[in-house]
Amino acid sequence: MDGDSAAVPLPRPLIGSAEPHFSFAGLKSAVQRAVASGAYAPADIAASFQQAVVDCLVDRTRIALERIDAPTLVIAGGVAANRAIRTALQQLAGEQGRRFSVPPGWLCTDNAAMIAWAGAERFALGLVDTLDAPARARWPLDPDAEKVRGAGVKA
């Protein structure tokens, strides 16, 4: 952020925790409160949100890397398209003496592409839903799979 911008105080959920899980619920609420307050410029809220996410991802990735002996840190998907995240995780990989692998930005798509592909695969198998199927925030591709924490399951 430049000299004219102001950092918005936002939480860093789970930073420092030994647990490898992610949670952005408190961060999302804090951003909503910052917007509603009218005390911050939208650009400052956006920059502060991005930095909070970067800080959380680096912290959680560091915890994960402490538990495995992988020679390479790989990131992909929509999150890998964010330059601040890419740069921070590349720096972390270097600090850890690991290689860093990430596809070119034009190949880093968001979840919409992955959801569309999953839908195409289900359709090819003859699996279809009616148009009145309920929308769910976390919809498993395999309804018989074990539920994971973060999908409405508490630890």
Q: Can you walk me through this structure?
A:
The protein has a domain at 1-67. The protein is globular and about 55 Å long. Helices cover 43% and strands 4% of the residues. The chain is mainly alpha-helical and 155 residues long. The mean pLDDT is 85. The protein is built from 4 helices and 2 strands, in the order H-H-E-H-E-H.
Output the number of helix runs: 4
Largest sheet: 2 strands, parallel
Largest sheet, order of strands side by side?
1-2
Shape: globular
Beta-strand share of residues: under 5%
Mean of residue pLDDT values: 85
Report the uncertain regions.
Answer: none
> How many E strands?
2
SSE string, helix = H, strand = E? HHEHEH
How helix-rich are the residues, as a percent range? 40-55%
Indicate the structural class.
Answer: mainly alpha
Rg of Cα set: 19 Å
End-to-end separation in angstroms reads 37 Å
